[in-house]
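In response to the reviewer comment on reproducibility (Comment 2.3), we provide here a single inverse folding case reported in full, input and output, so that an independent group could reproduce the run without further information from us. The structure tokens appear first.
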């Protein structure tokens, strides 16, 4: 999927970890180490091993293009998760900060709160959770709440 982005920075194949980047928006989480620890804890608690995860913050327009070109969906979304390998996990997660902001406003919650929910939602998809059937939605929402509760402290992203 890295070929989706023009001039995507070349990385070493053996680089491991979680990496935050922005494509066409100026956004960086203010406490990436805290988020990395939280995401790693979630992945390990779900019985998975992580090799590499790239979380790319982008605009609605950019994510719509990915949605159209790679999933044949013609609508805005807040997140698209591309699992590139299951064991160990290698993935790219694209998050539209525009859509997260709009969703947060509609829910009357802070942007940071909605962003955390969207991020952990994508991670849970990589751990095998789905959200197509009513029961699946109940399960993934319950997991989201559990892991959001484990993220201690009220610091802003």
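Designed residues, in position order:
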């Amino acid at each position: 999927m890295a070929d989706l982005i023009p001039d995507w920075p070349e990385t070493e194949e053996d680089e491991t970890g979680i990496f935050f980047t922005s494509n066409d928006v100026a956004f960086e989480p203010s406490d990436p180490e805290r988020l990395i620890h939280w995401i790693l804890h979630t992945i390990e608690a779900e019985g998975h091993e992580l090799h590499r995860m790239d979380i790319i913050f982008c605009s609605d327009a950019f994510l719509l293009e990915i949605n159209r070109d790679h999933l044949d969906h013609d609508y805005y979304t807040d997140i698209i998760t591309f699992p590139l390998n299951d064991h160990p996990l290698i993935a790219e997660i694209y998050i539209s900060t525009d859509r997260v902001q709009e969703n947060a406003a509609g829910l009357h919650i802070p942007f940071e709160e909605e962003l955390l929910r969207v991020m952990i939602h994508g991670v849970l998809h990589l751990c095998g959770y789905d959200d197509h059937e009513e029961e699946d939605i109940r399960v993934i929402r319950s997991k989201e709440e559990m892991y959001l509760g484990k993220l201690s402290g009220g610091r802003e992203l």
